[in-house]
C-alpha cells in the first residue's frame, strides 16, 4: 500500500496520463486524429461545402471565416473571406486567429495546408466521398465544435431521408444515365462518387460507373458509344441549360431522341452536404419522367 505521499504521487501520475476533461477528438478523412483542448470557438472553413456542413452541424455561430462562393446558408455571406479554395490568403486567415481550420483535401493547395500545419494551426482534413460520408462528417465536425446534439439530429434526418428514397425506388426500372460535371474538358463521375450513389438511390445506372478515376475526363465518342437514356448536368450554374443544348446535335442518342435532358441545381448535387437529399429527390423526379417517356 502507498503511504500518503506515495498515494498523491500515484494519483497525480495517473491524472497526467489522462486527457483533459474538455478535450475533444475526431478522426479526419486523412485518418488523422485531431484533438482540441476544448470545442473550437473560432473556425475557418476552406470550401463552400464545408461551410454548409458546419452550419448544418449547428456550429455556424462558431465560424469566423471562409472562402469565396460560400453562399449557403444566407448567413455565410456575412463571413470574412480568406481567398478562394484553390488560392488561400494565409495572412487574412491567420489574422482571424482560428482554433480550428476545416480544409478540403483535394481542393485546397497542399503547400498552403502544410504551411498552416507548420505554424501549429489545428487542421481537420475533409474529403466526403460517398452519401454516408455526409452524415459522418456532420457528426465529427459537431464533436469538434461542441454542437454534437444538433449534428446528430441533422445526421439522423439525412440518413432517414436516404433510406426512404432507397425504399421508394427499390423496385423502379433502371435508367442508364450520363451525369456531366463539366464541359471543357468533358467530365463525369464514377460509381464511387456520391453523385453516382444519388443516381442509384433513384434507380439510375451511371454509364461510367466502372471508370478508374472518381471524376474522369472522357471523350465525346465514349458517351455516344454508351448511348445513355438520360443526360443530367448542373451546368455552369442553377438553371443553365447551355451544356445540354450541345447534345441536341447528336440526334441518334436515346437521351436526345426522347428529350431526356435535365438540368439539376449543382449546389444541391455537387456539394456533399445535407442538401444532397433535396438534389437526389429532384433527380428521382427526373428519372420518373424518363420512365414515362418510354
UniProtKB/TrEMBL annotation:
Q: Which residues form the Fe/B12 periplasmic-binding domain?
A: 42-294
Q: Which domain of life is it from?
A: Bacteria
The UniProt keyword set, sorted, is:
Signal
Q: Is Signal a UniProt keyword of this protein?
A: yes
* Signal peptide stretch: 1-21
Is Signal tagged as a keyword? Answer: yes
The record ties this protein, via Pfam families, to: Peripla_BP_2
Q: What is this protein called?
A: Cobalamin-binding protein
State the species of origin.
Halomonas aestuarii
Amino acid at each position: 500500500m502507498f503511504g500518503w505521499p506515495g498515494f498523491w504521487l500515484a494519483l497525480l501520475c495517473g491524472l497526467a496520463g489522462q486527457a483533459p476533461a474538455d478535450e475533444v477528438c475526431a478522426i479526419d478523412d486523412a485518418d488523422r486524429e485531431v484533438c482540441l483542448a476544448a470545442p473550437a470557438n473560432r473556425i475557418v472553413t476552406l470550401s463552400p461545402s464545408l461551410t454548409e456542413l458546419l452550419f448544418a452541424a449547428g456550429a455556424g455561430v462558431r465560424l469566423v471565416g471562409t472562402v469565396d462562393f460560400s453562399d449557403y446558408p444566407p448567413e455565410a455571406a456575412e463571413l470574412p473571406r480568406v481567398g478562394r479554395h484553390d488560392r488561400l490568403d494565409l495572412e487574412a486567415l491567420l489574422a482571424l486567429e482560428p482554433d480550428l481550420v476545416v480544409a478540403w483535401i483535394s481542393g485546397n493547395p497542399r503547400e498552403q495546408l502544410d504551411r498552416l500545419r507548420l505554424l501549429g494551426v489545428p487542421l481537420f482534413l475533409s474529403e466526403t466521398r460517398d452519401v454516408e460520408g455526409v452524415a459522418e462528417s456532420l457528426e465529427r465536425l459537431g464533436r469538434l465544435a461542441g454542437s454534437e446534439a444538433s449534428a446528430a439530429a441533422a445526421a439522423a434526418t439525412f440518413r432517414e431521408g436516404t433510406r426512404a428514397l432507397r425504399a421508394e425506388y427499390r423496385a423502379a426500372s433502371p435508367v442508364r444515365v450520363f451525369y456531366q460535371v463539366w464541359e471543357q474538358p468533358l467530365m463525369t463521375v464514377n460509381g464511387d462518387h456520391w453523385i453516382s450513389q444519388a443516381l442509384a438511390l433513384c434507380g439510375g445506372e451511371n454509364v461510367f460507373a466502372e471508370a478508374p478515376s472518381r471524376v474522369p475526363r472522357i471523350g465525346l465518342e465514349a458517351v455516344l458509344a454508351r448511348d445513355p437514356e438520360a443526360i443530367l448536368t448542373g451546368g455552369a450554374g442553377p438553371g443553365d441549360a447551355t451544356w445540354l443544348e450541345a447534345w441536341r446535335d447528336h440526334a441518334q442518342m436515346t437521351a436526345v431522341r426522347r428529350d431526356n435532358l435535365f438540368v439539376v441545381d449543382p449546389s444541391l448535387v455537387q456539394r456533399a452536404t445535407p442538401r444532397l437529399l433535396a438534389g437526389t429527390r429532384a433527380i428521382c423526379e427526373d428519372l420518373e419522367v424518363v420512365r414515362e417517356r418510354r
